[in-house]
Specification:
Blueprint: H1 2-31, H2 33-42, H3 48-68, H4 72-90, H5 100-119, H6 126-131
Helix pairs in contact: 1-3, 3-4, 4-5
Length: 134
């Protein structure tokens, strides 16, 4: 019973983190590329088109990989790095006090990704299935 609870919690957490990058991360950027580009410009970003496409690709494919539990450790590590960079560049609360909540929220997401990078996708994941001897 306890093992199933652990599997349910770890899988649910992994899927929710993955959906965050797939949905609000990538899909909303795709649906509002002009608005996202304008926000990036307001934060002083350079090479906006390049970084926006790169971010969308990482979030789209990384989010999907985390949801299904494929290559979770390296993908979560990359997403953690992306989250940290975006957080420092786009949510600079030390210059814009209104960004404090976004900054702290993203640090929580960063922490969750580090846990995934360390522990992996868990028992209910593609990684777990592929690791089992046949």
């Amino acid at each position: 019973m306890l093992k199933n609870f652990e599997l349910l919690c770890s899988t649910s957490g992994r899927v929710i983190l993955g959906l965050y990058f797939f949905g609000p991360g990538a899909l909303l950027k795709i649906l509002d590329m002009e608005g996202t580009s304008a926000y990036m410009a307001s934060q002083g970003m350079v090479f906006i088109s390049f970084f926006l496409i790169l971010t969308i690709a990482i979030q789209l494919f990384g989010g999907l990989a985390v949801v299904i539990g494929y290559k979770v450790k390296p993908v979560a590590f990359v997403l953690a790095g992306l989250t940290l960079v975006i957080n420092v560049v786009m949510h600079d609360f030390w210059n814009v006090p209104d960004q404090t909540q976004n900054f702290v929220k993203n640090m929580g997401i960063f922490a969750g990704l580090l846990v995934l990078a360390g522990l992996g996708g868990g028992g209910w994941s593609v990684d777990s299935r592929l690791a089992k001897p046949k």
